[in-house]
Known about the structure:
Elements: H1 8-20, H2 24-35, E1 49-50, E2 55-56, H3 71-79, H4 83-88, H5 90-107, H6 120-127, H7 132-148, E3 150-153, E4 159-162, E5 195-197, E6 203-204, E7 213-214, E8 216-217, E9 229-234, H8 239-246, E10 256-258, E11 265-267, E12 274-275, H9 281-285, E13 287-292, H10 299-302, H11 305-322, E14 331-333, H12 358-364, E15 379-382, E16 411-413, E17 444-446, E18 450-457, E19 460-465, E20 468-473, E21 481-484, E22 488-491, E23 497-501, E24 522-528, E25 533-545, E26 554-566, E27 571-575, E28 579-581
Parallel strand pairs: 5-11, 9-13, 9-14, 10-13
Antiparallel strand pairs: 1-2, 3-4, 6-7, 8-12, 10-11, 15-18, 15-21, 16-17, 18-19, 19-20, 22-25, 22-28, 23-24, 25-26, 26-27
Helix pairs in contact: 1-5, 2-7, 3-5, 5-6, 6-7, 11-12
Amino acid sequence: MAAPEADALQRVFAAAAARYRVPADVLLAVSYLQSRWDSHAGAPSVGGGYGPMHLTDERTTSPQLAAGAGMLAQAAGLTGLSVAELRSDPAANVRGGAALLAAAQRHVGRAPSADPARWREAIALFSGAQEPSAARTYTDEVYAVMRAGQHRTNDDGQRVALAAPVDADRNAASFAGAGGAPHTGPVECPLSVSCEWIPAPYKKLDGSSDGDYGNHDLADRDRDASVDYIVVHDTEGSWKTALRLVQKPDYVSWQYTLRSFDGHVAQHVPLKDVAWHAGNWYTNAKSVGLEHEGILTAPDAWYTEAMYRSSARLTRYLAAKYDIPLDRQHVIGHDNVPGGTPEAVRGMHTDPGPYWDWAHYFELLGKPFVPTAGPDSAVVTVRPPYAAHRPPYTGCGKKPAEPCPEHASGAVRLHTAPDAAAPLVRDIGRGTDSTTGVNDTGARASTGQSFAVAERRGEWTAIWYLGQKVWFHNPAERPTAVNTEGRLLTAREGLESVPVYGRAYPEASAYPADVPVQPVVPLTYRVLAGQRYVVGERVPGEYFYAKDYGKPGRVVRGTEEYYEIQYGHRIGYVKESDVRVLGD
Length: 584
């Protein structure tokens, strides 16, 4: 059987739009927000959604069409197609979505119209969102897609494009704007996302005899300390489970949870306070944690476009509030957080994993990773073509060696020599050989991370990584990195190596008498003489001390300065006194 032409799906959208008298722009934009036009080979999402229109068994678009029926059953009744066809055939699925949008338009009392602006209520109904704010946010996102326009090749190799019409919806909020209804309660969210307050408990633990408490600390970060990082997590479980856990006093906490199917946000901890989410106390004190409903081994089921877009809006809001640069030294994954001590390195988390689409996320943030230097640049930024880049992984099933299903990835593999058969780089901090395991970060560089170039040889590029010269495949015709500018540092003259730290703590003399001194413990990693690493931020040594229940913690700040560096897959810190910044 011949493969469909690359523009076949585009024609399917046009035909379905004409048949059901839905503007093609509306149909394309809704589908883009539902699935980015992907079909996922007929596999359902965690919400039971199928195909480019993400039609579900559970969600009801219009109760009057078929009481209690899900979208698939409704679409079957409207089109005469079977539920099996709607699930497995992308063309049938698009027809079903168009029929549901047309039915929703009738249900809200509007006639079919060629004007996209007249479909706002129908789109909100199609979303299936229960909260009015979530339905409004979904609708705003659809119109944002139409205003911006989109084009991509989907997972079936189909090229689909949506041109940007002028004035698609005169009442829609802009991506970075402040449209929509005001939030209620103490939530700290942009008005362009749907957000509610579900507090994490700050209380003494039952049965504790020493005043122990959970599950976060009071602070005054708007006044006493800077917030420098936004940490992207996934929950490794459902929305319901995440909310149950964050409301337990004896569990950890984070500032926000984002729901998969529609990007709805729950805030749990005030931004001024310190949540316990990163597994590194220094990072906790300096960051905001965003938990995304999902499991890293099943990205198609969980990492939805609606959640990506809602998260990007929230991150832009936080970055503006705290003057956080929108780059991968400051917007990091949980898998980029360093272990605070040598003993903690092996137990650090690995989410959101190699399938999280950092390139798309930063496009939504308005900061795409593009070349900023010529072919002989001293720095490269990892940026493989996400959809086409499909390195094999193992460990997605019950057996560690079991291959994962083939999937797009934003990470490149790092070898000891310019040869795909060469061994993977060994992470000396973990003390084990690196593998292709989906949770093994030892020989992995991710999209947006920048490294100093050590050598170029044919189709391979060498970078300094974990104290070693390592190689990744970077052919000119299919590059997996872009040439960029960046500040670099190296060990000071006369030093054979300098230590790398997992937290930037102050010197002992900075601590007042009533605050216990925290040891400045180096990790097992070193920056060797002659090696170079990309500089992130220059920071003073800081320690957040919180002990007394009911009282805000205190910040101890020293005179010792550190530089954040992109040391490996995880960031690290070196003392300013140990290094020299090139060009300064």
